[in-house]
Amino acid sequence: MINQLISLSLKNRYIVLLIAALLFTWGIYAMRQNPIDAIPDLSENQVIVFTEWAGRSPQLMEDQVTYPLVSNLQGIPNVKSIRANSMFGMSFVYLVFNDKTDIYWARSRVLERLNYAQRLLPQGITPTLGPDGTGVGHILWYTLDAKGLDLGEQRALQDWYVKLGLQTVPGVSEVASFGGFEKQYQINIDPGKLNYYHIPLSQVLKAVKSNNNDVGGRKFEMNGTGYMIRGLGYIKTIADVENIAIANINTVTVRMWDVANVQMGGDLRLGIFDQNGEGEAVGGIVVMHYGENADRVIHAVKDKMADMEHGFPRGVKFKIAYDRSELIEQALNSVKHTLIEEMVTVSIIVILFLFSWRSTLSIIIQIPITIACSFILLNAFGISSNIMSLTGIALAIGVIVDNGIVMVENSHRNLAIAQENKTP
Fold first, then answer.
1. pTM score
2. CA-CA distance, 287 to 166, in Å (whole number)?
3. CATH class held by domain 2-38+328-422
4. CATH class, range 44-132
5. Domain boundaries in the chain?
6. Is 246 exposed, middle or buried (0-12, 13-18, 19+ CB in 10 A)?
7. pLDDT tens track for 251-299
8. What confidence tens digit (pLDDT) does each residue in 120-152 have?
């Protein structure tokens, strides 16, 4: 069989060269399409359901939120296991699907079941799906180098400008903000004053909610011109909160400043983010979509950062804290250097021992063709270019070269024997 294959190849050498060229071209295309990452993604195929209910104990979250969700999410097709965790004010449900299940099909089925399960939860509680990323989806960490802004202003810049801009980059699933203070209006109510005016706390809360809203009216026409009537009520300053009317006692209006102190402050924090011992910092974590090309997404995010820096206040710029593309590029450069070293070594060895440039060329040409064909198989089996797969290719180069050297040397030996037999 092998002899027939070799004989057929020698008789149709141009067809063999054409097939080799087509395989090499296909391999180059597959190499460009293959996702590139630093480490293989071995995380489970899971969907996370997150529910928040502020101020509730873990036991109450377990009884009122986690248990109803877990009991109603059971029975979804291709679910391998369901895990849950209840914390103070938060509930997490992890649905692990079979490895071959499409992640977006799984998310749609979970969302369908949540529409039914939500009626069993307390009023006003809405469970949400986590981002469609994996445990290795954190591809880039950055901070804001803004010495002229306080932590509250930096967090506002991150949440309302940087985060919204980076989420438009193709391949980005989520940008998680960290550090700083989230600005909020804080109303510190004096219980003694509420008791003096006989005003319940619920009435204060209702007044704040009802006075933070815009109201639309009808169209008003006058002298052939139409005017749209609107009531502007959104809170914009601290004075707007202080002037909210709470009650009317003996024709005297009781306003917010009569029973409370209003100020601008930061939300309660459970920790701080310190960078290299230099003080607190504000930044974000870029999470990519499931199965995306990490190297391509990172470069797209960096290009977007360069564009967004033009809209920053003076003296503010990005500072990269973690960049996986450096590890990816090092892994690719390692394979390139190994490939070049193998080619040079093979050329020297073959020329020294066989004194034949044609034999050297026939061995060297096997290396790029074989590597290109390996990327066709990587795409076929859904394997990304990472440290593990690229290391396997680098190790296989030695085997390819060894086989080529042995076959060429054996061919030279057989040709020499045949030439000696012909000599009288």
1. 0.77
2. 10
3. mainly alpha
4. alpha beta
5. 2-38+328-422, 44-132, 183-266
6. buried
7. 889 999 999 999 988 887 878 888 888 888 999 999 998 888 888 999 9
8. 899 889 899 988 888 788 899 999 998 888 888
